[in-house]
Amino acid sequence: MDKLLIIDDLWISYYKDGKKAYAIRGLNLEVNYNQIVGIVGESGSGKSTLGHAIVGLLPSNSRVEKGRILFEGTDLTKINRRDFYRFRGKNAIFMIFQDPMSSLNPTMKIYDQLREAVQGKRSSNEDFSLTRWFLGNIRKDIIIENKDIIEALKKVGFKNPKEILVKYPHQLSGGERQRIMIAMAYLLKPKLLIADEPTTALDVVTQAQVLKMLLELKDEYKTSIIFISHDITLVSQISDRILVMYGGILMEDGSSEEILKNPLNPYTKGLISSLPIYFKGEGRISPIPGFPPNIFNLPAGCPFHPRCSSNMSICKLQMPKIKKIGESHYVACHLYG
Amino acid sequence: MSHVTSMVNVQNLKVSYRIKGRIKVAVDNVSLNIDKGETLGIIGESGSGKTTLGMALLKLVKIDSGKIYFKGKDITLLKEKDMKDIRRLMQLVPQDPYSSMNPRLKIKDIIVEPLLAYTKSDTLEIKEKMERVIEQVGLDSSVAERYPHELSGGQRQRVLIARALIGDPEFIVLDEPTSNLDVSIQAQILNLLLDLQEKRNLSYLFITHNILVAKYMADRIGVMYNGKLIELGTTKNIINNPLHPYTKELIESIPLAGFKSRLKAYNVLDVQEPIVLKGCVYANRCKLAKEICKIKPPDIINYNNGHKVACHLYT
Amino acid sequence: MNTSLMKILTKNVNLLLGTIIIMFFIVMAIISVINIHLLTRYNPNQINFSEANLPPSILHIFGTDQEGRDVFSRVLAALPIDVSIPYIIVGASVLIGLIVGIISGYFGGILDEILMRFTDIFLAFPGILLALAISEILGSSHLAYRLYFSALALIIVNWPVYARLVRGQVLQIKSMPYITLAKVAGLGNYQIMKRHVLPHLIPILLVYSTLDMGTIILSYSILAFFGLGAPPPTPELGRMVYDGLSALPQNWWSSVFPALVITLMALGYSLAGDGLRDLLDLRS
Hints:
Distance between the termini of chain C: 25 Å
CATH superfamily of the largest domain in chain B: P-loop containing nucleotide triphosphate hydrolases
CATH architecture of chain C: Orthogonal Bundle
Helix content of chain B: 25-40%
Oligomer: heterotrimer
CATH architecture of the largest domain in chain B: 3-Layer(aba) Sandwich
């Protein structure tokens, strides 16, 4: 079966103050068509770097050292920065961020931005916007009608879209701005949507709304979604698969149920046991001791071993390789081979 | 509850401020109390007024009307110079560990600051207190000589907790103390806070938007929406038996078991419209709104054994 | 010398160069006051028409002016005033500006409003013209004290800039959460200012005032040029430039050398200020 996205032995490096570190080491992952994949990790896990790498938005002090990112067969790592626009936007890859304010041009009205996002048409305001750079050059082949824009806004919950169209981003709340970004996704109908902590800055009710909209996006347009978050329960609720990352490597990969019911990697287990699930006084959660890793100061071998209660001597020396345990459950841990 | 047995007692508190020429009421007629050794959790969205409430209890913002009692004493109108002795007993652990510390000061200076108002800086006694409190929060003594930028988020949060403890306070306001932290670190900090509460019999006002954290930390929970306290009760009651439609909406939005199926039944809500000035603050969003809800704001009533709610469904 | 100081100076070329220039002129000014004849055999005020308008030579390094006075000696004699007056002007401006800025920024309210409107008035005028006007009005009848009035005029015109600068910084700091925490800790306003506000202000003021020295040197020289400085025959660089104008173009050295010295002094502070800015910005 054809896969939408295949990541093959990806290594991404990162430079700071003359020192080099790896944000991602030897990552392998696959995303099918019409599938939601969740990537869970804490600071230093590399999850955000992954999202940016796929969409070609790595910062200038970071680059792909090794490996391939195959989007429908094309290796995105080999694409020139300038030509990347062909893979972003309509029918291709789109990304929404934690802070939509940085994707929206504060001097352009919402209408102009939505129009520009889809048509790539130069609006009267020539100023730079991340969306425009993101989507690249003018795509004359795409025609969009105003009614499509109105429809998209209705889908994301704006009862009076015409009012919203003439507003500027700063006149909207955080939740509203995120809805605009999802409206953009509805208009673009991307094959792959990367959502990087899209609800972290939102309250819990708006968060549920955003998740619902993402599910609808997937159901209606068969968009695959990579949902990046630090919240494993949140991710498990809408993802088909979950990937757990730590210190730049993939620790575990399985279906949502499998990961939650039967976590194999000690880190995954620790992550789940760190969740505050009890009522006060009815139990204590068991946090993982120690601190999350600093990628410039990673320990040798498995990056988790300093905090791992199942630490063995081999963990200090060798990085664990991914092994298949069960139907569709993969784990990287010396406990399993 | 009489204000003699409480640690903190607030009656009809109102706090408002000017923004862009208009007046916004951040805390609207809120009454609550916190007993000795208990944690009152306050949950709500951003803009609900929960942070302002915490600030008001510590007399850090100007109060429009209402009363605040601390250990039985009316501190509402006390001037700053008379607050000095009380300040020692009530402390704050703020939300953002990054900007809450002066980057030019060493950790040791940051931690001992609460003692400086009462004694001179370099006594041996102060040094011993600092070392003891660093140990109590689980930090290595070497952090004392470091600067804030050298520490991780979790370590900084522990420093702020150490600082709050050094004067042996009895009441601490914690404003989203773990919101910027990784899940595993958050768990460590939450357990630390519980341990400290047990050891020192501390009272907490725990402000958070994370309902699961509130569930784990609080004995009772108050729910705020747009400046109003719309529900107040024991944690079990609030979580298992929410009365107010907003509280129910919050509980249902938590991504836990059954969430996925609930999501399927969800309708993408309309974006919130501006608040109607009369009537219930939640009327615009409420699916169960009646005519009266748009006209008259509901009073908070005691529904059942200390479980209070402000909603016309129950009047 | 302190080794870390040496390390700082050697890494930062601007600072090093600027400091050398500044130190050089201060030393020259001190020697000039103690005994000018350690550096020159001539009397700066000795008029000698037979030696007038001599070009620069081994005998007269900077040549002689229209009245036969050795320009180099006059420059040396002018240094004590021209080196020290800017310190007085900048020092007083900083002090006044600091006090006003802290009061305004920290306490706010109506006091802040009044003070800021007050500074607005001064900031609205082009500094030099205002200083000229003030000095002229104040000092017109007392020739001997003209230079002090000019200094005063420059202080009057200059302090609002510092007040604004300090107030801006204080406002920024005031809104920082660690100030709120200090209040929770029970610290009083005075303690907060001493502990948090002042240490933050000092590096900024240091950089700004150093750069300002260059500007003030030029401003004061302009005032002296127009006769608002020390009364003749006391030599003064700005006045010397004016005096030498009528001798142009044949006798260029009477104006040019004093002007070069002014420029070099200003440059020294400019370089040092830039160097300080780099140094302090990098650290924080």
